[in-house]
Amino acid sequence: MNPIDSLLQNQTRRALLGRGVNAVGWAALSSLMGQNLARPAVAADSTLGVEGGGLNHFLGKAKHVIYLHMVGGPPQMDLYDYKPKMDEWYDKDLPDSIRQGQRLTTMTSGQARFPIAPTKFKFAQHGQSGMWVTELLPHTSKMVDDMCFIRSLNTEAINHEPAISYMQTGSQITGRPCLGAWTSYGLGSLNQNLPTFVVLVAKPTNTEQVQAISARLWGSGYLPGEHAGVSFRSGGDPILYINNPDGVPTEIRRKTLDGLRKLNEITYQKIGDPETHTRIQQYELAYRMQASVPELTDLGSETEATYKLYGEEAKKPGSFAHTALLARRMVERGVRFIQVYHNNWDTHANVAGRLPDQCRDVDQPCWGLIQDLKQRGLFDSTLVIWGGEFGRTIYSQGGVSKQNYGRDHHPRCYTMWMAGGGTKPGAIYGETDDFSYNIVRDPVHIRDFHATVLHLMGFDHERFTHKFQGLDARLTGVEPARVIQELLA
Which residue, 94, 162, 247, 383, has fewest beta-carbon neighbours within 10 Å? Predict the structure, then answer.
């Protein structure tokens, strides 16, 4: 359908009247310049849906995003932010000059003291970049020159729910569109038989302390409902009720959907709610996915060489390795945004026992994913993101020993990495103090991170907006945000 016709069909009465102020001018301009003037610039590889797609401000390098979110907050000083000076501070109190009266969670605010817990894991420098990486990530250490690291992320959120919401949607208040929904809205679909935005929840090997992962994290908020993420299950049918019920042939299913479409069209003519069209599209997409999803999730065609990349765990449905391999298959088939959640990084205790399991889950699969994307010519156009919602404290929660300790939430600084999709390989950005407690150089707020990701996809974050309640709402909000040019290739 012509984009202009599609837009007009989906306008509400209020929007139509609001646009009517300039109707005479638009009519004159259209007659002079032709109808193409009013159309958005459509990227060569995008397909317009009912609303959204082809809204790029310039040609972005990232056509797909695989966002690997480590739920709970990985401890940066045990993984990437090496602080050897802390060995001298073992079991000494965190100085007031370092803490500076910063907010603490209720889990440690009542402690009589805050004993320093140096990392118990060995570190080494790797690659031409010289990035320090823990011994727990031997595969990751081999590809540091393909990655760019941000060691100075910071956020105001100190508890999980608002922090994850902030990281995913740009707001601590739930209900806003997430990054995946914005991507779907802005880039549109590359495969009409699969969702534009898919969510996968991997099962961690260790389940000592898993966090709740709510569906509102991948909602579309005030964007049209068609841009919400579609969650695939880790076991059984990937999507509930996608298959026909027993005794219901495809012909009956098709006839039923045609009847529902007619009823929804009648409802739309009476009420004019764009979400009615969203419902129609969801039914139709579900029908098309009956053929596309089983083929997508059947890994029987993958070679042993591929499994060697991701590890044997990739053969186990629901594992992080299996999820990473599935994410690559989705990119191959045109899925724009794949959001992966991996739980149990909330290490309030037993870092020594739990962190090795967590790293073992993700280390080889992350390495294998990037090698696989490179081999298939997809790395340059696919942005891979890894990180959590905040960092951890250098002081121990509870008691401390050289063999084990726990770490509380810490929003003031943490580490994330990106790879591919137009990022600068081998870049290391930002620096923290000797305690990995405060940022001493090149801070990166979540808003800056979002602005940079949007830039990689071809969007000016200040102009990439959606009208909501009379405002031009955007992912980065109203406070200043900047694109981190040093992270761009």
Answer: 247
Measured in whole angstroms, how far is the alpha carbon of residue 323 from the centre of its chain? 14
- Tell the residue number behind the tokens 């090698």, with chain if given: 371
- 413: nearest Cα among 393, 427, 384: 393
> Which band of pLDDT confidence, cut at 50, 70 and 90, is reported for residue 222?
very high
Closest CA to 89 of 453, 434, 451, 468: 434
pLDDT value of residue 236: 65
- Rounded CA gap, 47 and 53, in Å? 7
Contact partners, residue 163, CB within 8 Å, separation at least 6: 73, 155, 157, 172, 389, 390, 409, 411
Rounded to whole angstroms, the Cα distance separating 109 from 477 reads: 31
Task: Count Cβ atoms below 10 Å from residue 352 Cβ, excluding itself.
Answer: 17
417: left (phi over 0), alpha (psi -120 to 50) or beta: beta
* Separation CA 487–CA 489 (nearest Å): 7
Give the whole-angstrom CA distance, residue 133 versus residue 71. 20
H-state helical runs in 400-456: 446-456
Span 148-178, pLDDT tens digits = 999 999 999 999 999 999 999 999 999 999 9
N residues, the chain: 489
Distance (Å, rounded) from C-alpha 206 to C-alpha 357? 6
Q: For residue 279, what are its two tokens?
A: 């419902």
Q: What is the four-CA torsion angle of 57, 382, 288, 178, rounded to 10 degrees? A: -60
What residue type is assigned to position 2 of the chain? N
Neighbours of 354 (CB within 10 A): 24
Name the pTM for this structure.
Answer: 0.85
Q: Which residues contact 304 (CB under 8 A, 6 or more apart)?
A: none
Upper half-sphere CA count for residue 106 (Cβ side, 13 Å): 2
3-state SS, residue 1: coil
Helix axes 320-332, 274-297, angle to 10 degrees: 110
Its sign, for the CA torsion 144, 323, 205, 315, is negative
Residue 266 CA, distance from chain mean position: 37
In the chain, which residues fall in CATH 3.40.720?
Answer: 47-246+285-487
CATH assignment, 47-246+285-487: 3.40.720
- The amino acid sitting at 97 is S
Say if residues 226 and 49 touch (Cβ distance below 8 Å). yes
User: How remote is the C-alpha of 329 from its chain's centroid?
Assistant: 17
At 5 the pLDDT is 56
Distance, CA of 143 to CA of 421 (rounded, Å): 15
